What does this fold into?
Amino acid sequence: MVDYEARMTFTEHLAELRMRLIRSLFALGVGVILCYVVSDQLIVLLASPLAPLGETGIISSAPS
It folds into this structure.
Protein backbone atom coordinates (compact mmCIF):
# COMPACT_ATOMS: atom_id res chain seq x y z
CA MET A 1 0.00 0.00 0.00
CA VAL A 2 1.26 3.45 -0.83
CA ASP A 3 2.11 5.61 2.18
CA TYR A 4 -0.24 8.34 0.91
CA GLU A 5 -3.21 5.96 0.97
CA ALA A 6 -2.48 4.95 4.55
CA ARG A 7 -2.61 8.57 5.70
CA MET A 8 -5.89 9.59 4.07
CA THR A 9 -8.53 10.98 6.37
CA PHE A 10 -12.07 9.67 6.47
CA THR A 11 -13.37 12.59 4.41
CA GLU A 12 -10.64 12.04 1.82
CA HIS A 13 -11.74 8.42 1.54
CA LEU A 14 -15.32 9.58 1.06
CA ALA A 15 -14.22 12.03 -1.63
CA GLU A 16 -12.32 9.28 -3.44
CA LEU A 17 -15.34 6.96 -3.18
CA ARG A 18 -17.55 9.72 -4.58
CA MET A 19 -15.26 10.21 -7.58
CA ARG A 20 -15.06 6.47 -8.24
CA LEU A 21 -18.85 6.18 -8.10
CA ILE A 22 -19.28 9.12 -10.47
CA ARG A 23 -16.80 7.63 -12.93
CA SER A 24 -18.47 4.23 -12.70
CA LEU A 25 -21.93 5.68 -13.31
CA PHE A 26 -20.59 7.72 -16.23
CA ALA A 27 -19.02 4.60 -17.78
CA LEU A 28 -22.25 2.66 -17.23
CA GLY A 29 -24.25 5.45 -18.85
CA VAL A 30 -21.94 5.52 -21.88
CA GLY A 31 -22.26 1.74 -22.19
CA VAL A 32 -26.06 1.87 -22.00
CA ILE A 33 -26.21 4.61 -24.64
CA LEU A 34 -23.87 2.69 -26.96
CA CYS A 35 -25.90 -0.49 -26.54
CA TYR A 36 -29.11 1.43 -27.24
CA VAL A 37 -27.64 2.89 -30.43
CA VAL A 38 -26.68 -0.55 -31.77
CA SER A 39 -29.55 -2.47 -30.14
CA ASP A 40 -31.04 -3.60 -33.46
CA GLN A 41 -27.74 -5.12 -34.55
CA LEU A 42 -27.25 -6.72 -31.12
CA ILE A 43 -30.68 -8.36 -31.24
CA VAL A 44 -30.00 -9.75 -34.71
CA LEU A 45 -26.59 -11.02 -33.58
CA LEU A 46 -27.96 -12.68 -30.45
CA ALA A 47 -31.03 -14.15 -32.20
CA SER A 48 -29.13 -15.53 -35.21
CA PRO A 49 -28.39 -18.94 -33.57
CA LEU A 50 -32.16 -19.41 -33.18
CA ALA A 51 -32.92 -18.83 -36.88
CA PRO A 52 -32.49 -22.51 -37.90
CA LEU A 53 -35.21 -23.49 -35.42
CA GLY A 54 -37.84 -21.56 -37.35
CA GLU A 55 -41.16 -20.45 -35.94
CA THR A 56 -42.09 -23.88 -34.57
CA GLY A 57 -38.96 -24.25 -32.45
CA ILE A 58 -39.35 -20.97 -30.58
CA ILE A 59 -41.74 -20.61 -27.66
CA SER A 60 -43.20 -17.13 -27.52
CA SER A 61 -45.49 -15.52 -25.00
CA ALA A 62 -46.88 -13.09 -27.59
CA PRO A 63 -50.55 -13.51 -28.45
CA SER A 64 -51.14 -15.30 -31.75
